[in-house]
Inverse folding.
């Protein structure tokens, strides 16, 4: 099965700084790489995803970069704001015959201080 | 569009009691799953279903049962609650896009305490 690790486990930044969270996976067949954001007391929600035929994807202040050779992908948040404070999870997954079993990383708690 | 709805939001059980956590989705998604979330351990898969009448075990299935009689509903049953089952439970659903993976939509969660 897929082994997923996230680093760091906790990240504290000042408002306006950039934040980078790295996700390392073990299954070389993985080719779908989503990031979920979970605010305190709320449900996880997808914020950005990338497929293996693309090396980088950007959506306003967030971006995801992929290194398939090294089996890791990273979430980049620029110009951080207090509302970015949350726990972020990665969930890399191979394409398969259709069913979905997401294996989540243990999460990274991001704290953005004003 | 309600999305994924879980009930109840909070529950306290005594050890040995049974209960069912309800999950319903109105997006006609084939895939549904249950996760538990414990501090420092992320989200761990309990059971999942790829369609009505089909279920399978995830990473931590012991102590839980599921069934999927309709596309919309995927209840999670605790037959004899134990303190180790104190956790936040999330139901999630997603749709088929051929062989492509798609976004998982989560319910709002059920916070369960077993005393």
């Amino acid at each position: 099965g897929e082994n997923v690790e996230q680093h760091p486990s906790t990240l504290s930044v000042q408002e306006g700084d950039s934040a980078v969270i790295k996700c390392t996976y073990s299954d070389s067949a993985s080719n779908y790489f989503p990031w979920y954001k979970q605010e305190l007391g709320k449900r996880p929600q997808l914020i950005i995803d990338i497929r293996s035929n693309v090396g980088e994807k950007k959506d306003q202040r967030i971006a995801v970069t992929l290194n398939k050779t090294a089996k890791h992908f990273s979430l980049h948040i620029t110009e951080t704001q207090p509302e970015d404070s949350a726990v972020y999870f990665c969930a890399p997954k191979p394409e398969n015959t259709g069913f979905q079993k997401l294996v989540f990383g243990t999460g990274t708690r991001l704290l953005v201080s004003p | 569009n309600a999305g994924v709805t879980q009930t109840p939001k909070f529950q306290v059980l005594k050890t040995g009691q049974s209960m069912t956590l309800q999950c319903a989705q109105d997006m006609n998604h084939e895939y549904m799953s249950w996760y538990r979330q414990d501090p420092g351990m992320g989200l761990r898969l309990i059971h999942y279903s790829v369609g009505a009448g089909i279920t399978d075990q995830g990473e931590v299935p012991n102590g839980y049962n599921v069934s999927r009689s309709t596309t919309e509903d995927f209840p999670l049953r605790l037959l004899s609650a134990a303190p180790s089952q104190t956790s936040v439970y999330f139901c999630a659903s997603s749709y088929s896009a051929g062989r492509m993976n798609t976004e998982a939509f989560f319910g709002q969660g059920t916070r369960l305490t077993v005393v």
About this structure: The two ends of chain A are 40 Å apart (CA to CA). The CA atoms of residues 28 and 69 of chain A lie 9 Å apart. Chain A has no helices and eleven strands.
